[in-house]
């Protein structure tokens, strides 16, 4: 089977990796830009002993998706930098709310005191879930804000759930589907009438939870995953920065006759009973099957001519723009160590959060921070398209105020990531099912993987590629 992969980000490269592993035949990956990696981008300043990441910087080794990524990392023989659960970056996560930096509880003891910005002990929110009956008619989906407010109260929705959604997808919790992040909890609540009650009942009734794991790994579990469990990793990075991963994947594929064509944008896809004709700038390329890891809004125009309804469904998945500002200051300037801080939207500040990169990883005598801005609120704060200097000045003033840093950054980078994160708004699961059902109904030789469909995290997009390759017919 001749297969083409559209997109040279992590999901597209993973699709190439799993295609090669399953079918053993050369294939081609087409990437529109002059580099692989998509939104994963590292600037490694070895001369000054620090790293800037404009995309993700850590990966969580959790569950089946985490084990799957570690199997890939192991195969590529990459050096990992573990962050154990005892590490300050794993223990300390903060909010900036009500004019102060607030430490989130990091142990069961934290549930019983009153910690700002909360006005009562968090165990009371748990009690609320136990005594709140599920009076509503059974729901197919709702916003994660509505779910949290209904079960745990407005304070939890405003100061715990909303900033967490900002950190994960730069989105508004009032619009994001509860199935995006808490599908298991939502389904337990709908089935048993409460989150805690449902969790307890499910432990006794649903014994086959791990059956899906069977058959994914040739051995019982990857060695690196076993090590992560034994050493209690909370997350990990890669030596030299996260862009090492897509670069290593490209090298691995290239050594096995997989062609990665850069600056090769696909302009159109034409489907026929014999396969797909891909229109590139230089030529038309016939293939039997296409795996698209492109953002939904980039795939939509490629299928519009033949399948306008599919194109419209793809465009129903919204995206947001995010500003990322990397800053380096000489010296150790942070008064409080941790992974970073998030800003609840209710605070109405122009930043989503700040990551303390130099707390997560060793960066010598440097303070390295990454400020995230925009997302769902991009137009509200940055609609008039400010200059990079204005963006840097705004980010710097917020950092100086929140973290009480007097200095100006010595080195900085401003990145505008246009339409970088898909938003899993209420009904997302049904939307994706509709798209995949359309492809199945019309027997299109097309598979979809990547952040638009099955999760926005690194583990999600890699596993999404694997699942789509495994679902392909073997002949």
UniProtKB/TrEMBL annotation:
<keyword id="KW-0285">Flavoprotein</keyword>
<dbReference type="GO" id="GO:0004729">
    <property type="term" value="F:oxygen-dependent protoporphyrinogen oxidase activity"/>
</dbReference>
<protein>
    <recommendedName>
        <fullName>Protoporphyrinogen oxidase</fullName>
        <ecNumber>1.3.3.4</ecNumber>
    </recommendedName>
</protein>
<dbReference type="GO" id="GO:0005743">
    <property type="term" value="C:mitochondrial inner membrane"/>
</dbReference>
<feature type="domain" description="Amine oxidase">
    <location>
        <begin position="10"/>
        <end position="472"/>
    </location>
</feature>
<dbReference type="InterPro" id="IPR004572">
    <property type="entry name" value="Protoporphyrinogen_oxidase"/>
</dbReference>
<keyword id="KW-0627">Porphyrin biosynthesis</keyword>
<comment type="function">
    <text>Catalyzes the 6-electron oxidation of protoporphyrinogen-IX to form protoporphyrin-IX.</text>
</comment>
<keyword id="KW-0274">FAD</keyword>
<dbReference type="GO" id="GO:0006782">
    <property type="term" value="P:protoporphyrinogen IX biosynthetic process"/>
</dbReference>
<dbReference type="Pfam" id="PF01593">
    <property type="entry name" value="Amino_oxidase"/>
</dbReference>
<dbReference type="InterPro" id="IPR036188">
    <property type="entry name" value="FAD/NAD-bd_sf"/>
</dbReference>
<dbReference type="InterPro" id="IPR050464">
    <property type="entry name" value="Zeta_carotene_desat/Oxidored"/>
</dbReference>
<comment type="similarity">
    <text>Belongs to the protoporphyrinogen/coproporphyrinogen oxidase family. Protoporphyrinogen oxidase subfamily.</text>
</comment>
<keyword id="KW-0560">Oxidoreductase</keyword>
<keyword id="KW-0350">Heme biosynthesis</keyword>
<dbReference type="InterPro" id="IPR002937">
    <property type="entry name" value="Amino_oxidase"/>
</dbReference>
<comment type="pathway">
    <text>Porphyrin-containing compound metabolism; protoporphyrin-IX biosynthesis; protoporphyrin-IX from protoporphyrinogen-IX: step 1/1.</text>
</comment>
């Amino acid at each position: 089977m001749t297969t083409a992969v559209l997109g040279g980000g992590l999901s597209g490269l993973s699709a190439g990796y799993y295609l090669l592993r399953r079918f053993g035949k050369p294939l081609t990956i087409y990437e529109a830009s002059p580099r692989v990696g998509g939104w994963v981008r590292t600037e490694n300043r070895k001369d000054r002993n620090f790293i800037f990441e404009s995309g993700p910087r850590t990966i969580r080794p959790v569950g089946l998706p985490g084990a799957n990524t570690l199997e890939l990392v192991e195969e590529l023989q990459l050096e990992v930098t573990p962050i154990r659960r005892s590490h300050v970056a794993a223990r300390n996560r903060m909010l900036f709310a009500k004019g102060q930096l607030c430490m989130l509880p990091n142990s069961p003891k934290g549930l019983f005191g009153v910690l700002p910005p909360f006005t009562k002990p968090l165990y009371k929110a748990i009690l609320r879930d136990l005594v709140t009956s599920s009076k509503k008619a059974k729901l197919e989906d709702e916003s994660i804000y509505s779910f949290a407010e209904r079960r745990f109260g407005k304070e939890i929705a405003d100061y715990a759930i909303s900033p967490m959604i900002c950190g994960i997808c730069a989105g508004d919790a009032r619009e994001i589907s509860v199935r995006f992040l808490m599908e298991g909890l939502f389904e337990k609540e709908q089935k048993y009438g409460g989150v805690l009650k449902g969790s307890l009942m499910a432990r006794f009734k649903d014994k086959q939870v791990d059956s899906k794991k069977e058959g994914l790994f040739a051995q019982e579990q990857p060695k690196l995953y076993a090590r992560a469990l034994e050493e209690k990793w909370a997350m990990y990075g890669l030596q030299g920065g996260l862009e090492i991963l897509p670069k290593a994947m490209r090298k691995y594929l290239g050594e096995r006759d997989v062609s990665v064509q850069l600056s090769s944008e696909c302009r159109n896809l034409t489907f026929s009973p014999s396969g797909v004709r891909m229109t590139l700038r230089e030529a038309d390329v016939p293939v039997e099957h296409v795996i698209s890891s492109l953002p939904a809004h980039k795939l939509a125009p490629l299928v519009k001519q033949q399948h306008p309804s599919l194109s419209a469904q793809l465009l129903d998945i919204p995206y947001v723009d995010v500003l990322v500002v990397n800053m380096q200051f000489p010296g150790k300037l942070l008064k409080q160590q941790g992974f970073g801080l998030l800003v609840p939207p209710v605070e109405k500040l122009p930043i989503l959060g700040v990551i303390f990169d130099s707390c997560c990883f060793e960066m010598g005598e440097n303070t390295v921070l990454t400020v995230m801005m925009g997302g769902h609120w991009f137009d509200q704060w940055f609609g008039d398209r400010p200059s990079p200097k204005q963006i840097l000045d705004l980010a710097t003033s917020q950092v100086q105020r929140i973290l009480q840093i007097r200095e100006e950054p010595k080195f900085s980078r401003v990145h505008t990531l246009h339409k970088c994160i898909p938003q899993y708004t209420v009904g997302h699961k049904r939307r994706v099912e509709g798209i995949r059902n359309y492809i199945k109904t019309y027997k299109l030789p097309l598979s979809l993987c990547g952040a638009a469909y099955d999760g926005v995290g690194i583990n999600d997009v890699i596993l999404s590629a694997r699942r789509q390759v495994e679902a392909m017919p073997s002949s």
